[in-house]
Amino acid sequence: MEAWVDISILGLMAITAIAIAMLRNLLAVVMLSGIYSLLAASIFVVMDAVDVAFTEAAVGAGISTILFIGTLTLTTRIEKKPAHTPILPLVVVCITGAVLIFGTLDAAVYGDPQSPAMQDVARYYLENTKKHTGIPNVVTAVLASYRGYDTLGEVVVIFTAGIGVILLLGSWRRGLGTMKPHKDDKA
Amino acid sequence: MKEYLVLRVITKLLLPFILLFGLYVQFHGDFGPGGGFQAGVIFAAGFVLYSLIFGVAAARKVLPVGILRAGLAGGVLIYAVVGVANLILGANYLEYTPLAETMKEGQHLGIFLVELGVGLTVASVMMTVYFTFATWRAN
Known about the structure:
The structure holds two protein chains of two kinds. Chain A is about 70% helix and about 0% strand. Chain A is mainly α. Chain A folds into two domains: about 1-105, NADH-ubiquinone/plastoquinone oxidoreductase chain 6, subunit NuoJ (Four Helix Bundle (Hemerythrin (Met), subunit A)); about 115-175, no CATH class. Chain B has helices at about 5-25, 35-55, 55-60, 65-90, 105-135. Chains A and B meet through α3, α7 and α8 of A and α2, α3, α4 and α5 of B.
């Protein structure tokens, strides 16, 4: 049963990806990438990774879509026809895909308790989180406590992204659409 | 979007639930799925929805640029200060243990504060980016 759920979700994801590659209307592409993220989130739910699924649904399907639409209002909605033929990119994509699939042959089987990742740190967290922190959600404990220093780095990355947007696109304190180029800027 | 009555009414109806759900995800992350990142995005999504329907100027009345920028920096600051507080109390950076009487209480408090910082920064950044995109016009 679960295999069929996986197959149908992955099939829908493949169809969405092909449609994204074929379309020239960028608004439709943005909508489809939102759907793609939602399908990815449902795959994560099937794999019991609810925290990841939650993030994917909120960030990938929600906010990214909004920000892409915001970007489209600043640019155009129709992608220009590419000047080159799609043969070379297609070959590159096929080779990369083949290498990735070849790589999965050596990957551990999903949920295999004997895999190296399950033996060392994962086991330590599962056995000790309750004892050390008393928090039932191991993901939160790892994120905020055991790996708190990494999460601080992630927050700084997001902070930097926000600062970057403010610096590049200017302040919206100056009002709606009243940003003037500096007098030294060339038109 | 003054003419879309249904959208305006439904948005007003949904908004408290979205924000409440954001707070639930924020403060319930220890026990269920969620945490600062997801909560920040959900909270920001509520305000983005509001400004999509009622305009950025209306959303700006609730969230002036100063508050957003304070949240932007304040979240990172809360996170870093919790770490430094541990150093002052004689533990390692972000160790949380000396923040309360017992180890578990210290961990609880530390994770709570750190997640609060994460949520604050993420929500402020998402709203800042959206508002900046929505109001910027190429000359």
